[in-house]
Amino acid sequence: MIYLPRKVDTIGTDDVVGPEGMEKFCEDIGVEPENVVMLVLAWKLDAQNMGYFTLQEWLKGMTSLQCDTTEKLRNTLDYLRSLLNDSTNFKLIYRYAFDFAREKDQRSLDINTAKCMLGLLLGKIWPLFPVFHQFLEQSKYKVINKDQWCNVLEFSRTINLDLSNYDEDGAWPVLLDEFVEWYKDKQMS
Q1: Computed over its alpha carbons, how large is the radius of gyration of the chain?
Q2: 28 against 129, higher pLDDT
Q3: Going from the N-terminus, what domains does the chain have, and what CATH number goes with each?
């Protein structure tokens, strides 16, 4: 018998755990809905839509995690968090987050959702994140495309905090060129 959240709705032909059920589920396992571990769980379940788990995603994911009780799922949370410490898994989760969070009829991620997801994923591990977030706040950007999204991770992993190894002639998206220019100007003033 696989553990099921307390609130399951039917939408169309799918049984789903929606936002209300997700809140109850998070209560059951003692995790805030905005906790990054929920994104890792969604990745493990291969969930397609943020805020929703279909019954099929749920059953397949819980079976693969070998969780058939709330207690077992609670005990799995540390394992799920640990996946973020492996750079390969982190990159897979990071890339997954883009498609998971975007509106399915859009190719890009709206800037507010992008800022939230970047904060969730990079906020505690990339020292330049607060400055990058500030840049996004004042920028003209309304959306982030997948190329920009993926390059932000690469930038955060490879560029020194003082930006000394940033190659202006490199193949970075304009977004990151503009960030570097903005940040350097900000430091000069």
Answers
A1: 19
A2: 129
A3: 9-85 (1.10.238.10), 105-188 (1.10.238.200)
